[in-house]
Amino acid sequence: MDSLSSLASLTPEQFFGGVTKAGKALAAAEKKGNVPKTKNFDFSVQETCCVCQKNITPPLKVLRCSACRAPIYCGRECATKHWKYPPPQPPGSIPGPTHKELCPANKRHMERREYYDGVLQSFPWGRLESDATFSFDIARGRFGVFGGTGTGYWSHRGGPIPHSNRGVMESMLASSPYGATIMKAFAAFDHTDGADLLGTRHLTDVQGWKLEPVLIPYLNFPSADKRPALLKSTLDSWDEWYQWRKLSQESPAALLMSFPMTVYRLLVHCLEVTGPTQASANQRRALSVHLLGAEVELNYLPLFAELALLLPYLLPYHDIQLVVFGSGAETLIKAAKKKPSSLVAKSSLTTPVYE
Ligand SMILES: [Zn+2]
Ligand SMILES: [Zn+2]
């Protein structure tokens, strides 16, 4: 109960402030070329069994699947169970896949890990912890953009429940005698994803990114010559994107741009649904992209406009429509009903609001 009661008294200021302080201390130590190898400078995560959710602490040892090395178990019993049965889910939710179903894809993914770790480590802020995880929270802390509502594009829920779909955690707490107290404490971390779209004007690039101007990939340009050049070929790596955007790799922009860039990659490299020659000035083509289960994405929805800079060479004469599905969008639309002058309330499929 001790850890639960300390979680229940955690305020957003303490949580966001503590992580920000740690991120800044880490960045300062790196600058001096001296990161002490102490617990204060290691942001590894507690290993948890993917079936029973138990923390794996001595005398328990981490057990991994010998084929894919991906899931982590507290012991043989959970590992055997997971091979044939999906891990327990909150009542009413769709059961997840079994390990047997996932193992081959896990294996392919884990084989590419070294490559992806290399990409991450090419950024000055892309540090791997001693357990080979990357802390998104600490990375945001370095730049002072780790926070709840009011942190521009970086706004999000935080603390012990980072998602609006609280899933397993909520159902576990519902059956705990301390559940109600803890849920009340967690409510302090609540945040409506996309809350800034309930305002009457879009955030400016500076208000949204909350970074030093040189670290920002601007989407509003004072004049046409300040716009990134029209691409003559596809962008295939972050290096290329940063170069095209004339940004230093010091910028943490990739942390949020990875979402619109995933859509770009899907359109350009994976889905062969359309192509450069499939539309013309007289015959424009509509392309509808559906984002399923969007939550945090709503906080930086304007960044998807990056696609309008990236795609004209590859998909000229295409009208791209982004359709966002999920409970996050529903919550936002309900909130907008009470705010008729908000961006969300004023926009529709035929009348987007750009102001
Ligand atoms: Zn277990
Ligand atoms: Zn496996």
From TrEMBL:
Alphabetical UniProt keywords: Metal-binding, Zinc, Zinc-finger
Superkingdom classification of source: Eukaryota
Protein name: MYND-type domain-containing protein
Record flagged with keyword Zinc: yes
Domain MYND-type: 49-103
GO molecular-function terms, A-Z: zinc ion binding
